[in-house]
Write a structure and sequence with these properties.
The protein has 16 helices and 9 strands. The protein has 401 residues and is α/β, with parallel strands linked by helices. It has 2 domains: 3-276, Aldolase class I (TIM Barrel, Alpha-Beta Barrel), CATH 3.20.20; 295-389, no CATH class. The longest helix is centred in the first third of the chain and has 17 residues, at 113-129. It has helices at residues 3-14, 38-41, 84-96, 113-129, 147-154, 169-175, 181-194, 217-231, 258-273, 278-281, 295-302, 316-320, 327-336, 344-350, 354-357, 376-389, and strands at 53-57, 102-106, 136-140, 159-161, 204-210, 235-240, 309-310, 361-363, 366-367. Bound molecules: iron/sulfur cluster. Iron/sulfur cluster (SF4) binds at residues 62, 64, 66, 69, 71-72, 108-109, 176.
C-alpha cells in the first residue's frame, strides 16, 4: 500500500476524534516551525472539527472492540499502519507546503498499550530530533501504558490527551469493556502532577462521546467539572455520537445529536469563563439542557428573581450572568462606568448583544422593555422568536410551538 493510500485511510479514521485544538504552547527556536502562533493556527471545518493540524492515526488496527468505533476489531474495514518515518515525512512535507501547523497523532491499540505508545514516542522523537520539528504536537496517551512511557511522551509533545470516551464506568462497561476510567484518570493525574514548561506545556484535554449511552447532561457536566477541578484539564471536547456501526447495545438514531453537543459546549464555556457551577445550570429536576434556548438564557429565565440587574451597579460576576454579555463586554462595562453612566445606546457600542440582554437589565433604573412585560412567558417567547428569525445553532429554522 502506498503512502497516499495509507494517508487517506488513516486521516479518515481519525476524524471521529474531536479532542484536538492547537493552543497554549509557546516554544520558539531554531527548529522548523514554532508553536508561538498556535493560539490562532487552529481552524474548524463546517462540522466544527479542528482542521489546521494534520490529524491522523498511526494505525486503525485495534485489538479492542468498542461498540461505537469504526475501527473496532470486528469491523471489516481497510486497515493500514504508518511507520514512524512515514508520519515524519508527511508532517514535514505538509508543514513546508503550509498546509498544516502541527500534528495530532492518535492510534488504535496494536498488540498492547506499551507497544502502541512506543511507536507514538518513536514518531514524535524522530520529528523533534531528526527533523527538528518545533511545531505543535498533540498526541494521544494510551491508557494502561507504562508510566515511564508516559513520561517520555510528555517531554516531547505540547499536549496530551487521554479520552474518557463515555461519561460513566457503567457506560464503558457496556460499550467499551476493555477500557476503564481509572486508567484514564491515572494518566490525567500523572500529567497534572508533573506538568511544567517542558512536560506537556500546553496541558491536557479529553473527549466524551455524547448520546451513545443514556447519561443525562447533568451526569456529563458533573464529570467535566470534576475533571477540570481535579486534573486542571484545558478542554473537554464533546463529540456527538455518530452512528457508524450497527449493534443492539447502541442507540438507534440516524443523525448525531449536534444541538445537544452545542449546548454542552456552551455550558462548558459557562463553567470555564463565567464562574458558573454545574449546580447552577442543571439539577435533578432539570437534568438536561433546553434544546431551544442556550444554557445561560435558560438559566436566567429560571432565575428571574435575580433580574433585572442594574448595569451601572452590579458586580463583574453579576454582569457575566446576563445573557448577551460576555467576558469582554463585562470588562468594558466595568471600566466605562468609572467615567460615565451607561445607557442602552452605550451598551450597543460596547458590544453587548442587546437583543438578549435587554430583557434582563436596567440602565439607571430604566427597563428596555416595559416593566409590565418583565415576565417569563413574554421574555421566553421573544427570545425564541429572535433565535428563530436569525436561525438557531443547528442552522435550521425551529418551530416555536
Ligand atoms: S480503543 Fe476502542 S475507540 Fe480506540 S480505536 Fe480501538 S476500538 Fe476504537
Amino acid at each position: 500500500m502506498d503512502l497516499k493510500e495509507k494517508l487517506v485511510i488513516l486521516a479518515d479514521s481519525a476524524k471521529y476524534d474531536a479532542s484536538c485544538s492547537s493552543s497554549g504552547s509557546k516554544r520558539k527556536g531554531d527548529s522548523i516551525g514554532n508553536t508561538a502562533y498556535s493560539g490562532i493556527c487552529h481552524s474548524f471545518a463546517s462540522d466544527g472539527r479542528c482542521i489546521s493540524l494534520l490529524k491522523i492515526l498511526l494505525t486503525n488496527c485495534c485489538i479492542y472492540d468498542c461498540k461505537y468505533c469504526l475501527n473496532r476489531r470486528s469491523n471489516n474495514i481497510k486497515r493500514a499502519i504508518f511507520t514512524p518515518e512515514e508520519i515524519c515525512t508527511i508532517t514535514i512535507n505538509f508543514y513546508k507546503r503550509n498546509y498544516i501547523e502541527g500534528l495530532f497523532l492518535s492510534s488504535g491499540i496494536i498488540k498492547n498499550p506499551d507497544y502502541t505508545m512506543n511507536l507514538i514516542i518513536e514518531t514524535v522523537y524522530l520529528l523533534r530530533n531528526k527533523y527538528h520539528f518545533g511545531g505543535y504536537i498533540h498526541a494521544k496517551a494510551i491508557p494502561g501504558a507504562n508510566k515511564n512511557l508516559l513520561n517520555k511522551l510528555g517531554n516531547l509533545v505540547d499536549r496530551l490527551s487521554a479520552n474518557v470516551e463515555l461519561p460513566t464506568e457503567k457506560g464503558l462497561k457496556l460499550l467499551a469493556p476493555n477500557k476503564s476510567s481509572d486508567k484514564v484518570t491515572e494518566i490525567m493525574s500523572y500529567v497534572n502532577n508533573n506538568r511544567s514548561t517542558k512536560f506537556v506545556p500546553a496541558g491536557q484535554s479529553t473527549q466524551m462521546i455524547i448520546g451513545a449511552t443514556d447519561e443525562t447532561d447533568l451526569d456529563i457536566m458533573n464529570k467535566s467539572e470534576n475533571m477540570y477541578n481535579r486534573y486542571k484539564l484545558k478542554r473537554v471536547f464533546y463529540s456527538a455520537y455518530i452512528p457508524v456501526n450497527k449493534d443492539k447495545l447502541l442507540p438507534s438514531i440516524n443523525t448525531p445529536p449536534l444541538i445537544r453537543e452545542n449546548r454542552l459546549y456552551q455550558a462548558d464555556w459557562l463553567l470555564r469563563y463565567y464562574n458558573f457551577k454545574v449546580d447552577d445550570i442543571l439539577d435533578k429536576n432539570n437534568p438536561n439542557f433546553n434544546l431551544l434556548l442556550d444554557p445561560k438564557c435558560d438559566w436566567a429565565l429560571r432565575h428571574l428573581d435575580e433580574f433585572p440587574k442594574e448595569i451601572n451597579k452590579c458586580s463583574y460576576f453579576d454582569l457575566l450572568k446576563i445573557p448577551g454579555i460576555g467576558v469582554t463586554c463585562a470588562k468594558r462595562i466595568i471600566s466605562s462606568r468609572k467615567y460615565f453612566s451607561i445607557d442602552f445606546k452605550d451598551l450597543k457600542k460596547i458590544g453587548v448583544v442587546l437583543k438578549r440582554a435587554k430583557y434582563f437589565i436596567t440602565c439607571n433604573g430604566k427597563y428596555f422593555i416595559s416593566n409590565s412585560n418583565f415576565k417569563k412567558d413574554f421574555i421566553e417567547y421573544n427570545l425564541l422568536l429572535e433565535d428563530n428569525n436569525s436561525n438557531n445553532s443547528s442552522g435550521k429554522q425551529m418551530s416555536l410551538f
